[in-house]
Write a structure and sequence with these properties.
The protein has eight helices and 17 strands. By secondary structure, it is an alpha/beta fold.
Length: 330
């Protein structure tokens, strides 16, 4: 290309960091601005923390970082357009992009962590794991007015092992997204790629996750709940409400077999070959072993350690009060 294309990047979350880095290093573009969400309170001290993309932009030396609460505002759009961009690239932004940016000379490209049209919307990585998909990938689309409905510019596919947590899969797809953009950006700007419409068949939509989504529903299968524990890290997390208070579940496994004589929803002691004593949750079709848990206000511990400290939990159901505990709590 005879001149570098002035480009704005729109992103906030961790998934967008590698894309920003690849964009910054690409010989065909000049990143003239980064649009991201404003700093938010985080941690126990509720100190303001910038987004991962904002921090990455600072490390890369991208000068024009524009924290915006809503890109729908006329002032925000005017600020971005004042940079005179010819291209917008988006990854993990979480805001609606106005038509004026979609209609830039080279359009607006979006990197989405799923095999579109499957898992459009706000939670594609979590939903991929929860659904038990055997493969995933990243899709590069030219954005249109719909939600992840634009035509496909390029796509990458990779197999899933069935053991990934959401943070692990996000880190992997983050790298794939950056590489996918780097390979296709030059040809796109050169007019060598004709995007293809997304098929209607197989289209699904995800939504923003809520805290209550993390509750472990014993009416589900043990297989589903094991996937949920992996999918919902770190947000909304997976949990049970007990007499001890809310217990977060960080790791789980399918113990196999029904909890004999115990109705679904009962906490049961386990003896698993190769792992020894443990704590399980009886489900609709088997037992979910709670490998790593965290009672409210406590450190993480094994399910076995929790049961040793509170043996009265065995035989209770989340939401029921266990018998009075006479032993020493760990």
């Amino acid at each position: 290309m005879s001149s570098r294309v002035r480009t704005v990047f729109l992103g906030s979350g961790r998934f967008g960091v590698e894309t920003l880095r690849q964009l910054h290093e690409h010989e065909d573009v000049e990143v003239v601005g980064v649009v991201t969400a404003p700093p938010r309170p985080a941690g126990r001290g509720a100190r303001l923390r910038s987004t991962p993309v904002h921090e990455a932009a600072a490390d890369l030396g991208v000068g024009a970082v524009l924290p915006v609460t809503s890109l729908r505002s006329a002032d925000a759009v005017a600020t971005v357009l004042a940079l005179e961009p010819g291209l917008a690239v988006l990854a993990d932004f979480g805001q609606i992009v106005p038509k004026t940016l979609l209609d830039l000379p080279h359009g607006a490209l979006n990197l989405h962590p799923s095999l579109l049209p499957r898992h459009r919307g706000a939670a594609p990585i979590q939903t991929t794991i929860l659904a038990g998909d055997t493969e995933t990938g990243v899709t590069l689309i030219r954005m249109d007015a719909g939600l992840d409905t634009g035509p496909i510019v390029a796509q990458t596919r990779s197999a899933l092992s069935g053991t990934e947590t959401a943070p692990e899969l996000e880190a992997r797809l983050e790298l794939e997204a950056g590489e996918l953009l780097a390979r296709n950006l030059g040809p796109w700007l050169g007019g060598e790629i004709e995007p293809r419409p997304q098929p209607d068949e197989g289209a699904t939509m995800t939504r923003v996750l809520r805290r209550e989504d993390g509750r472990l529903d014993h009416q589900r299968s043990a297989e589903y709940l094991e996937r949920q524990v992996r999918a919902y890290q770190p947000w909304p997390g997976s949990f049970l409400d007990t007499e001890l208070g809310r217990i977060a579940v960080w790791r789980a496994a399918i113990a196999g077999g029904l909890a004999e004589g115990q109705p679904p929803g009962t906490l049961v002691p386990l003896t698993t070959p190769g792992r020894g004593p443990g704590l399980g949750l009886a489900t609709s079709d088997g037992v979910l072993e709670l490998l790593e848990v965290q009672p409210a206000g406590r450190q993480r511990m094994s399910g076995a350690d929790l049961l040793r400290g509170r043996p009265a939990l065995a035989g209770t159901r989340p939401g029921q009060a266990p018998p009075a505990h006479s032993g020493q709590e760990r």
